[in-house]
Specification:
With 263 residues, the protein is α/β, with parallel strands linked by helices. Helices cover 37% and strands 21% of the residues. The structure holds NADPH dihydro-nicotinamide-adenine-dinucleotide phosphate.
Length: 263
């Protein structure tokens, strides 16, 4: 039996075991996907090998540690310097980032987008900014504090703090902060958000499974919007495709994974 797991802290809320096991069951694949709560990200490689895993997903706060744990990093993960999918192949740990591509798939339904304002400057903001730029969409990053902006500056991406930002027109407004995840906060001051939404074509909150204050404000603006569910599904489909070494097309993986969202 092939074994897979998700590593994170916390990890109990993760939907990944349900998503991947649903695919394994439906396609009659002899595999099992579990959760691993990991406090120290530097132990990731050791624990992965100890458990004899064939692959894993990595979530908050270990995506940068996962990047460092790999023997080889492929694709966009090399630029983002964060890995959310690990595959054990020929005695090597190979790292990928499927969050970035998952997000790009999720926003296809908005139609043509040229500019995007990313609120937040964490790992997800990094992944999205690089993916957007590769997709010919100009990203701008807005964060409440300065300490995480260096990465974006080094990549030549425009960055702002709340106090030096003046609202202008962006096609897509994206919340990548954890504001609203366990509290009732908006990611930026309400007046600024309302002004931005009045000039936008759509909005996305990467948080899934709940209506955040950001999403509530977006709904009031009557703009097209999405929460993080489509991104979660798309990143999971791509990860499962990599886990199974491309044996099954994504078209076959997606329906059972989507079905797990109803469970
Ligand atoms: P990080 O911890 O790396 O970054 C968090 C960011 O949020 C920082 O920029 C931080 O600002 C900002 N922030 C946190 N709280 C507030 C607040 N109250 N007001 C304003 N800004 C705030 O997190 P990640 O990037 O890894 O994850 C962010 C979110 O994305 C999580 O909620 C996660 O669940 C979700 N996610 C969803 C995915 C999906 O598939 N749908 C995939 C990956 C992530 P500062 O720098 O000032 O501290």
């Amino acid at each position: 039996m092939r074994l897979f797991s998700i590593f994170g802290d916390p990890v109990s809320h993760s939907r990944s075991p349900l998503m991947h096991n649903s695919v394994f069951n439906s396609l009659d694949i002899d595999a099992c996907y579990t959760r691993t709560e990991l406090k120290d990200g530097e132990k990731l490689r050791e624990v992965f090998l100890q458990k004899g895993l064939s692959g894993a997903n990595v979530t908050v706060p270990h995506k940068e540690a996962a990047f460092r744990a790999c023997d080889e990093v492929r694709g966009i993960a090399r630029t983002i310097q964060a890995v959310n999918t690990l595959v054990y192949q020929d005695g090597k740990l190979i790292g990928y980032n499927t969050d970035a591509e998952g997000f790009m798939r999720a926003i296809e339904s908005f139609g043509p987008i040229r500019t995007a304002l990313i609120i937040g400057a964490g790992g997800t903001a990094r992944a999205l900014s690089i993916a957007l730029r590769q997709g010919d969409i100009t990203p701008t990053v807005l964060n409440r504090s300065a300490n995480r902006l260096d990465y974006f500056k080094a990549e030549g991406i425009d960055t702002y703090l709340w106090e030096d930002f003046r609202a202008s027109s962006y096609d897509l407004i994206i919340n990548t902060t954890s504001a609203g995840l366990t509290d009732t906060e908006l990611p930026i001051p309400r007046s600024l958000l309302i002004e931005l939404l009045s000039q936008a074509k759509g909005a996305v909150d990467v948080i899934y499974g709940k209506e955040t204050p950001f999403l509530r404000e977006v709904k009031l603006s009557a703009l097209p919007y999405k929460d993080g569910s489509d991104m979660l599904l798309a990143q999971g489909v791509l990860a499962n495709y990599l886990f199974l070494n491309g044996e099954y097309p994504t078209e076959q993986i997606e329906p059972p994974m989507k079905y797990s969202f109803l469970l």
